[in-house]
Amino acid sequence: MEYDAVIVGTGIGGTTVARELTRRGKRVVMLEAGGRTDMMGNTLTIAMILRNFGLNRSREKSFLTFAKNYGGLSTLTAGCAAVPPQAIFAPHGIDLTAEAEEARNEMKIQTLPDELIGPDNLRLLEAANDAGFHWRRMENFIDADKCVVGCSSCMLGCPTGAKFTARLYGDEAMAGGARLCLHTKAAKILVERSSVIGVEAKRFGRTVRYYGKTVVLSAGVSNVELLRQAGIAEAGQGFACDWLQFVGGIIPQVSTVRANPMTVGTLEHYESDGIAILPVFPNWSQFLLFLAFMGPLNLPNFAKFRRYSGIMVKIRDEISGQVCQGNTFSKPITATDRKRLDKGVGIIKKVLKKAGAKSSDIIALDPLGAHPSASCRIGEVVDSNLATRIPGLYCCDASVFPQALGLPTVWTIVALGKRLAGYLNAG
Ligand SMILES: Cc1cc2nc3c(=O)[nH]c(=O)nc-3n(C[C@H](O)[C@H](O)[C@H](O)COP(=O)(O)OP(=O)(O)OC[C@H]3O[C@@H](n4cnc5c(N)ncnc54)[C@H](O)[C@@H]3O)c2cc1C
User: Fold this and answer.
1) DSSP 142-181
2) Which among 220, 184, 215 is positioned nearest to 32, based on CA atoms?
3) What is the pLDDT of residues 212-270, one digit of tens each?
4) Please, which residues have CB within 8 angstroms of residue 206's CB and are 6 or more apart in sequence?
5) DSSP code for 41
6) Which atom of ligand 1 is nearest to the CA of 398?
7) Phi, psi of 262 (to 5 degrees)
8) How far is the CA of 397 from the centre of ligand 1 (A)?
9) Predicted confidence (pLDDT) per residue in 153-201, tens digit
């Protein structure tokens, strides 16, 4: 089977490149290790989409999320859009302005009308600004015409199809002639005379080879194992995950349980402290899991789940730890990470108290890493064209970030994918 491009992984990075290349008339195949879970909008969806049902813990016992399904992690996002941060890419000669602007319309990026933001989020925004902060309505990649008031199931897969996900681009790529192979796990990069010639994969117990002069690895943290096996040993030496912490508080007459997540918030502490503050809370099953892992004394808080209003601090964490063999990993929370998280938790407590929560009714959950990234960094593993040192072999997903973003990632990855497709087409 011979293609112009073999794409490994159907997260946002892989499907963007696939779509752009098929639009330019290229023959493309997308290999996806997982299947396609279409049962969107309930808690089981999360378990079906995440690798090991979401129970991936670092050697230091922190949870990190990895996808194993068509569309990757993008199917579980809150739909919050952050402009690609120029300061992170400019030092590498990368300007994503044009690509991001092109994506804006396709992803339907906009601030939602107040009825979709909801009164509970707006109450938090008001309390935060009364407390001296500068909250605003955030941009989202959610089609307001398809979104339903009170649904709030964005992170359960968005049952209405209002949210932009990698599946939109993946389906468009297929409509343009690309082939999608589900349950097909890339196992080896094929190299001949120092150049890439394709990928060997495992598909229903069989070994299948897909040939192409261009191979794009968009398999997230799994890129590391494939690259190391191809001789690129520096992959996976340290990575980022944008540690986040959820803080919940009981505010009289307010509960964000049915509110659309991350539709308001603030990035005012981002430049100075690498902190983003956005309202969002885990769903009931994740909340129960958090409490259980935090120890039995925390379990009685589960009874109060529906009364909580939740806000998250997300940080730009330091590159630390490593991806180990077999895709296990070490990811310590460094002293700087801890300081940033604590500062964010402190800010959130001020907002919750201003909104009417008592100190005794505020709970901070343990840190979680929801954005595995920066394991194949630009400048170290790939160059500014996302090329590895093996001719024809590229990476394109969150793994190429030169450092942690500490922000919603999807818009940035789409822009990187469009840029890479333009480069490949020109080459
Ligand atoms: C709960 C949650 C909420 C989030 N909310 C937001 C948000 O509101 N806004 C935002 O911008 N970002 C958000 N993010 C972050 C964002 O979803 C991810 O950072 C982004 O989708 C990662 O995309 P990716 O292309 O790097 O790869 P991934 O999504 O990790 O995709 C990798 C793909 O490769 C496949 N794969 C892995 N190994 C192999 C292999 N060997 N062979 C073949 N296929 C393989 C996987 O199955 C997967 O489909 C959120 C993340 C989570 C977990």
Assistant:
1) B-TTT--TT---GGGT-TTS-B--HHHHHHHHHHTT-EEE
2) 184
3) 999 999 999 999 999 999 999 999 999 999 999 999 999 999 999 889 999 999 999 99
4) none
5) T
6) 26
7) 55, 35
8) 8
9) 999 999 899 999 999 999 999 999 999 999 999 999 999 999 999 999 9
Residue 405 DSSP SS3: coil
- Output phi, psi for 228, to 5 deg: -60, -40
Tokens 């540690």 locate to 243
Atom 47, ligand 1: which residue's CA is nearest? Answer: 68
Select from 287, 281, 314, 312 the least CA-distant residue to 301.
287
C-alpha 43 to ligand 1 mean position (Å): 18
Alpha-helical segments (H) within 3-65: 12-23, 43-49
Q: What is the 66 CA–ligand 1 centroid distance (Å)?
A: 7
pTM for the full predicted model: 0.97
* Atom of ligand 1 at shortest range from CA of 397: 26
Structural domain spans, the chain: 1-35+70-107+164-236+373-427, 111-139+241-370
Pocket residue to mutate for ligand 1, from 107, 108, 409, 411, most atoms within 8 A of Cβ: 409
Q: What is the pLDDT of residues 65-111, one digit of tens each?
A: 999 999 999 999 999 999 999 999 999 999 999 999 999 999 999 99
Atom of ligand 1 nearest to the CA of 411: 11
* Residue 209 pLDDT level (bands cut at 50, 70, 90): very high
DSSP string, 257-325: GGSPTTSEEB-TTHHHH-EEEE-----HHHHHHHHHHH-GGGGGGGGGGGGEEEEEEEE-PPPBSEE-G
**Cα–Cα distance list, 372 to 61, 148, 315, 319 (Å):** 15, 30, 13, 11
Q: What percent of the chain has pLDDT over 70?
A: 100
Fold for the domain defined by 1-35+70-107+164-236+373-427: FAD/NAD(P)-binding domain (3.50.50)
Pocket of ligand 1 (CB under 6 A): 8-13, 31-34, 65, 67-69, 72-74, 76-80, 155, 185-186, 218-220, 222, 262, 370-371, 397-398, 408-410, 413
Q: Is the pLDDT reported for residue 307 higher than 80?
A: yes
Ligand 1 atom closest to residue 12's alpha carbon, by position in its atom list: 25
**Ligand 1 centroid to 131 CA: how many Å?**
35
In the chain, the N- to C-terminal Cα span, in Å, equals 22
